[in-house]
Amino acid sequence: MRGPRYTPIVAALPQTVPFVGPEKMERDRGAPFIARLGANESVFGPSPKAIAAMQGAGAEIWKYGDSTSHDLRHALAGDLGVAPENIVVGSGIDGLLNSTVRLMVGPDDHVVTSDGAYPTFNFHVAGYGGTLHKVPYRDDHEDPDALIAKAREVDAKLVYIANPDNPMGTWHSADRIQAMINALPDGCVLVLDEAYIEFAPEGTAPPMDVSDPQVLRFRTFSKAHGMAGARVGYVIGHVDLIASYDKVRNHFGMNRTAQIGALAAWADRDWLSHIQTEVARARARITDIATENGLTALPSATNFVTIDCGRDGDFARAVLQALLARGIFVRMPFVAPEDRCIRVSAGPPGMLDAFAAALPHALKEAGHG
Amino acid sequence: MRGPRYTPIVAALPQTVPFVGPEKMERDRGAPFIARLGANESVFGPSPKAIAAMQGAGAEIWKYGDSTSHDLRHALAGDLGVAPENIVVGSGIDGLLNSTVRLMVGPDDHVVTSDGAYPTFNFHVAGYGGTLHKVPYRDDHEDPDALIAKAREVDAKLVYIANPDNPMGTWHSADRIQAMINALPDGCVLVLDEAYIEFAPEGTAPPMDVSDPQVLRFRTFSKAHGMAGARVGYVIGHVDLIASYDKVRNHFGMNRTAQIGALAAWADRDWLSHIQTEVARARARITDIATENGLTALPSATNFVTIDCGRDGDFARAVLQALLARGIFVRMPFVAPEDRCIRVSAGPPGMLDAFAAALPHALKEAGHG
């Protein structure tokens, strides 16, 4: 009989996809969204210097990118106070999570995360045949103590936490995360996802300590640097751990203009400050819109605000659907009780006006009040 | 004891890298190359329309790319006479080979290729713990009969062939490849790497038959379309096989401007014709340079010419080193007896002039004559 033979792991995997993208949703509804506030992209855009650098390098796209991302790694390392050998660059945090899971997780291996945390991490754990254990959020925060306790209980090889957290926008202090690091069981590596760290208050990121062989810190150009479409992320960690990525990563996988754009974006501190200001303003506005509608916005250390719709998941899903039908692309947590919320990305005034105009109708349609 | 725990497969992998990139070589030698003719890039560049499309989309890099590469897949499918569901787009053939191997190969699984064929495929097979079996080239061609015989002997899940071949530039007729397809053992999938197909004579590519669940055809925008740095490749195959990639691929891994550029490049047939003409001219020139130096150029159906240096691997390696020292970046086959050759990519007249000027000195330095 003709046909392929999949691995047992692949044969057992469901045909699921972690996220449906807004372009597909637009095609399905037959109209573009008027406010793209669902994917925590930086709607304010990247540094004009990054755009110019990428445009200037356009004609050189015939060249493969530098397989070592040398210039970018050196720039990052210099500013972060680590060696270039402590950094690996990859195609976004998603791609780097894939490699990370692949390095350590196979059948019979255990991994711990929070129930409702980043689904793409879970996708990779399942994809390599690992067993995922989930602990609940506590008061809309990931729960470091519960994560560590579970990691110890199941002898986990990896434990995941995002600080600040997605999808809730909440965060822990550097001290709390450092205590979690100190409490890691032997042989367990912390996947510390800091995608949103640039939006968090001072004192959220623990000190860099690349002598610790059990901590990997994930950062990205997709959020504060406004380059989600470029696919540039990086991991900071112990030299041995970072060197291990060379065994499995797609060495020539980086887009060349993305490397060049990221380098220019990294150098543009003024633009980063500008974005931080715009995001703070947008968070305040989204919070006001929530309040005006009788809802409660959670405090946020990210570029989005999670709004408690005040009832159950079915109600929040109805609100979300009504917003989508009005051309407002937002998302929401997948798991109860966090799924009583919707999640709205920071955006420019025009898009937030559209959200503000649609929300009362969406709430009414969902049966509010 | 603190520290990570790798999977047994990863722990056993060597700390090797398939290719050293030219940027690293330039840094190591402390000077840029004057002729970049080693990586089979399209030195003539991409379509100006593709460049313009990418530049025009630069400010939208804050958006994630379309996770389904909808527009590109539809354009490709329409022209190739298949359905969009027969195509998966990924970050170059390298990234797609990774996913392909992952879908089917684990420990205890067997894979067949030619000794000296594309090393990145071998890197992935090793990376997923598979056992690789190699058959020799025959008269500087990959040997379909030997590949099939070995696949049958070891009950291979995958068998790899590139047509046209890299690093030799040689090719088989469509009939010969079709006979290979027809002879595939049960449960063995053919990885048909057609990265260079646009440079081959009519009658090199067998007919598209996406009803066959044992054939995957790999194509790319890195070669004839001049977009190696963008990282856009695609696989054409049976709907079920193509759908399986969704289980493991990095769904939001595509660079957005790369998707847009590829779409524009695909539409620009005139540029493709122009490149085919330029490459044919460059192949003739490289062949002449070889002849003038008493060497033999192999016939080529690619955008490079493999030159038989007439002696053994040590001699060819010495020629290569002498060329590199003169700023001429070329590469060569890794394995005897093909390593008696060097491989020179098509390029514009200026770069070929530089190659022509350096070659006699390199040959002399290597002890020729």
SSE order of chain A, one letter for each helix or strand:
HHEHHEHEHEHEHEEEHHHEEHEEH
- Estimate nothing, just give the exact number of structural domains of chain A: 2
Helix content of chain A: 25-40%
Assigned CATH architecture of the largest domain in chain A: 3-Layer(aba) Sandwich
The CATH class of the largest domain in chain A, by name, is Alpha Beta
Number of helices of chain A: 13
Compute the CA-based radius of gyration of chain A.
Answer: 21 Å
CATH topology of the largest domain in chain A: Aspartate Aminotransferase, domain 2
Q: Identify the quaternary structure here.
A: homodimer
Structural class of chain A comes to: alpha/beta
Proportion of residues in β-strands of chain A: 5-15%
Overall morphology of chain A: globular
End-to-end distance of chain A, in Å?
61 Å
Low-confidence stretches of chain A: none
